[in-house]
Amino acid sequence: MADPTADQTVPAPTDSRLAALLDGYRVPVGHFDELCAVDGSPRAQWATLASSGDLTRDHLCRAQARVDRQIHENGVTYNVYAAADGPSRPWTLDVLPFVLCAQEWDGLASGLRQRARLLNAIAADLYGPQSLVSDGVLPAALVLRHPGFLRECHGIRPPGDVFLHLVAFDLARGPDGQWRVIGTRTQSPSGAGYALENRTIVARQFPHAFRRLRVQPLTAFFQTLQDTLLAGAPADGETPHVVLLTPGPYNETYFEHVYLAKQLGFPLVEGGDLTVRHDRVFLKTVSGLRRVHAILRRTDDDYCDPLALRPDSTLGVPGLVHAWRAGTVLVANALGAGVLESPGLHAFLPAACERLLGVQLELVSLRTSWCGDETVRDDTGVVKPAFPDAAMEPVFLADVGETAHQEWAERLKADRDAFVVEEFLPLSQTPVWHDDRFASRALMLRVFLASDGRGQYRVMPGGLARIAGSDRQIVSGQRGGGSKDTWILSDSPVEAALPLEPRFIAADGGRQAADSATSSRAAEHLFWLGRYAERSENSARLLRSVLAHLTDPDELPGGLRDIAFRVCRLGGALTRETTDTDSLLVERALIKGLVDAHGRQGLAFNVAQTVRVAGAVRDRLSSDNWRLLNRLSQALPRTPEGVDLDEALELLDETIIALVAVGGLEMAHMTRNDGWRFLSIGRHLERLSFVGTTLDEAAAEATSAEPALFAWLLDLSDSLITYRSRHMHAPEWHGVLDLLLFDAHNPRSALFQIGKLGKHVQLLPGADSGELTATRADIEQLLVACHAPDSAQRELFRRSTAIDDLLVACQQTAHRLSDALTLRYFSHIYERPLPVMAI
To answer: Which residues, 6+ apart, have CB-to-CB distance to 650 below 8 Å?
Structure first.
């Protein structure tokens, strides 16, 4: 075989556009070139793409910059480590698509459909009669000793006998130009969401070429998956309720889980959101338990049920296997499908295909030998060369990685059944845009298939093309590789891609209530999203108001200075150790609070928490909302070093504008369901507490304070313009109280918050029970206290100590309401017998 590390110069193609870009383009000897034929001429699809006029250096540079910016703004990430403190690395997407012609794709798709049917039939046999094992078609040790074979699932027949609703195959092209299957993904295949996001972004960069080349759309594939899950769900006449089960925000592909949930219209849930009662699965919602009929899982097999499978798992649903066995819930893919991912099966698939389907296997696999077969060992137990005409590479099933050959040898001696020997395959090379020019990188293609529920599979006309990093040869997401959009061309006109539509139609033709799908976990995150977002805005306004006065010490008289610093300490912007006499020291302390994400109560901390809880309910936020939050999290510097007063004030202005925009999107675009109510309650609680705190601090010195204090309070509450439009004199305490405490039309007043809280809490399900009953009574008393019937009584109220009691009552009511909501809707320490909702 030719040396794959050597480079060969590609002759200049005849197309002038490509010729200008391929200066220095090299493809390693012994690898298939996806761009050019042997004579150096561009392949047909690339010639057509080049003739569209989009392949110019300037256009590709600008397009790659737009792609990178879109990836960043959309928050497309792949978490390198599944840990709370692990980095979330931005997804890497090359602007150049990977293009395949229709004729080549049609043959490949036919072989993939056959292979998907075969694997589904093998799963049905392994978890049923096991004739393949008993008749010697598959070695018993290869199946039964594989960690993916779950004995607890034997005998279970899923609805429609569909074990694999979604399956993926990793493909690679060898030097001969032939595609080979080198890997199978059957547990919870990842990448389909990334492929769809890649398409959305890259297609915009080449609109003329995209139409001219007749690129096949992806939407129909996802619609097939939608329809199959809904049709196969054992709903017993009810409207099917399908959820997408995720391990959580720290999973490496969590972005895709969120993305797919939004695209498919399925609620995103975690294991703790679900419970099994009487062999049925229910979603814990704020309205009670809601029946779940189907689960599209992104959690690995053995983590799905701590009772029947892995006991230390906190990601699964206790009792899920039992409910699945009872036939009351569809689980996609079927539990135990991981055994089909064994590379050792490749050597036995041709025989299994003839046995189960009665035909020969169309698409070849990477040549493989299982080390449990005595024919591949000599008398000493050492592996003999399985493929004398090719390099061989042993692979450990549990870790298909790059372990040293010495370690492989030791493991082979310890457990020979756990290994296979695979042919070494020099991967084909595809062009990428690197350093403003074309460069070659190794390519692998992951293709997805969805069951139609009737024994056939639909192939996604595209897939996730993955490319090697700077080493050019090894395709690995952990080693800096990237991805490409995959364009499958059509010989006939294609229909315009339409957005995915939800398939939730009630039996009577009506629309389901969206409120019923708000899980307790989602409601809690939305509640804290509102609180943290409001805390962030309050903190930003407080910092800006104090720092702005520090620019001119004459504008910060003693009374205002004392109150402002006390409020800063209460809000965590200043520590108790910070002295008030040194303006420069105060300035640096405030700026540190602006950027310190570990200060627990500082602005950066509150912004970080806002983004964190938003990420946990990202499937419920619009793309625009997330972009704003993502920009916000990137705007604040990580260290106070080099941040002066002017820059700090500019950062605060930008932060406040972004936070106000986030709040505006919530009001303008979010559906008024239970989730939105919890978010709004969180905001109003924080605003009520903040108004009560600031007025309470000012009340003690209000009678002798200067107008500057009252102007500062109005500015802090974004009410200064309103006050000036009503009064033609300098701010006075009575006017400030009217506007910030008693004005029902001022969205920053205490009365406004109390009114909104009373309205939202009243509309929550089950709000007339438990601690909420007493808290609602407290809210009603506050409303009465703030609604003084006439000016004379209001004047008397102002001059009495009742004002202090009212401000304290505002803060206490906010705390009590928060506790009551937590106990009623969020706490699962004591499992309450929630009523089962009618569908």
So the answer is: none
Q: CA-CA distance, 160 to 141, in Å (whole number)?
A: 29
391's tokens: 């390099």
Instruction: Report the 10 Å Cβ neighbour count for 583.
Output: 14
Nearest of 807, 741, 821, 828 to residue 776 by alpha carbon: 821
Q: How confident is the model at residue 277 (pLDDT cuts 50, 70, 90)?
A: very high
275-282 contact pairs (CB < 8 A, 24+): 275/317, 275/318, 275/831, 276/317, 276/318, 276/319, 276/320, 276/322, 276/323, 279/319, 279/322, 279/323, 279/326, 279/328, 280/323, 280/326, 280/328, 280/329, 281/317, 281/320, 281/323, 281/328, 281/329, 282/836
DSSP secondary structure of 665-733: HHHHHS-SSHHHHHHHHHHHHHHHHHHHHHHHHHHTTGGG--HHHHHHHHHHTT-HHHHHHH-SSS--H
CB 294 within 8 A of CB 300: no
Burial of 390 (0-12, 13-18, 19+ CB in 10 A): middle
Question: Do 625 and 662 meet the contact criterion of CB atoms below 8 Å apart?
Answer: yes
Task: Encode pLDDT of 331-363 as tens digits.
Answer: 999 999 999 999 999 999 999 999 999 999 999
Is 616:609 a contact under the CB 8 Å cutoff? Answer: no
- The one-letter amino acid at 625: N
Strand, coil or helix: 496:
coil
- For the chain, domain boundaries: 7-79, 88-366+425-488, 519-670, 676-839
Residues 556 and 523: beta-carbon distance below 8 Å: no
Pairing verdict, β 437-451 and 429-434: antiparallel
Tell me which DSSP letter residue 587 carries.
H
Report which residue type is found at 513: A
Query: Rounded to an integer, what is the distance from CA 747 to the centroid of its chain?
Result: 33
Q: Is 16 helix (H, G, I), strand (E, B) or coil?
A: helix
Degrees, nearest 5: CA angle 187-188-189: 105
What pTM was estimated for this model as a whole? 0.87
| Partners of 168 in beta bridges | 185, 448
Beta bridge partners of 280: 277
Unique residue bearing structure tokens 């959820």: 243
Task: Give dist(CA 180, CA 171) in Å, integer.
Answer: 6
Distances 354 to 122, 125, 137, 349, 357 between C-alpha atoms, Å: 12, 14, 10, 9, 6
Per-residue pLDDT of 741-793, as tens digits, reads: 888 899 999 999 999 999 999 999 988 877 788 888 888 888 887 875 455 54
8 A C-beta contact, residue 138 and residue 148: no
